[in-house]
Every structure is written in C-alpha cells, then in structure tokens.
Design a protein that fits this description.
This protein is globular. It has a two-stranded antiparallel ribbon. It has one domain. Helix 2 packs across helix 4 and helix 4 crosses helix 5. The protein is mainly α.
C-alpha cells in the first residue's frame, strides 16, 4: 500500500514538473505515460539511487550534499530513457537541466507529502 501511495504522489509530481519545466514533455499516452514513468522512477529511487549514493558518498560529502542533486537528475533522466525505449511511452526529458529541475520538483512534492503523512499519524 505504501508503494501505491508513493507511486500516486510521484505521478502527480511528474504532472506538476511537466507543467512547470520546459524540456519535459508528454506526448500521446497521457496518464499512461505518467503512470509508467512514476513506477520506473519509484523503482529506481528505491533500488539504484541508494547504491549510487553509497559509491559516491565521498563526492556528496565533498560538495556538501549538492552531488545528490546530480544523482537525482541522472536517475530522472535514466527513468525517462527507460520509459521511452523500453515501454514506448511518450515521456521525454530533453537534457540535464530539465532533468535537474524536474527531479527537484518531484523531490519537493514527495517530501511535502511524507511530512503531511507523518503529521497525520501524530
């Protein structure tokens, strides 16, 4: 259930990122593209991102955490490539900067939602 909730939040965050950031576009499939991209992004954030952060912890410490933004942008760009090339959905991210800004938006929305969920439990 936790994964489904997180998936829905990421899906809405992707919709917001497409709306705000030029260079992130959805063509054709509409909500299917958002759903597939959200599932891929959630899966990569849960599996690949911790491994990347572990192996680059020296750079993360050296840059005072800013390298985490680069890793998040890379995972966002990789998710878009997987969505396009493997699942053939029209979610495209055109370069590093749109990926960086899109990943920041998705991170902010998921952080805000998780904070709200924690406050509801108290």
């Amino acid at each position: 259930m936790k994964f489904v909730t997180r998936w829905l939040v990421i899906m809405l965050a992707l919709f917001l990122a497409v709306w705000i950031v030029p260079g992130i576009e959805v063509s054709g499939n509409g909500w299917i593209a958002y759903a597939v991209m959200a599932a891929i992004l959630a899966l990569l954030n849960a599996t690949l991102l911790p491994v990347l952060k572990f192996f680059s912890c020296g750079l993360i410490i050296l840059t005072l955490g800013l390298f985490s933004l680069v890793l998040n942008a890379g995972v966002f760009l990789l998710s878009s490539n997987i969505a396009q090339n493997v699942f053939h959905v029209g979610f495209s991210v055109n370069g590093f900067w749109p990926a960086l800004f899109g990943s920041i938006i998705v991170s902010i929305v998921t952080i805000l939602f998780s904070r709200e969920k924690r406050e509801e439990k108290k």
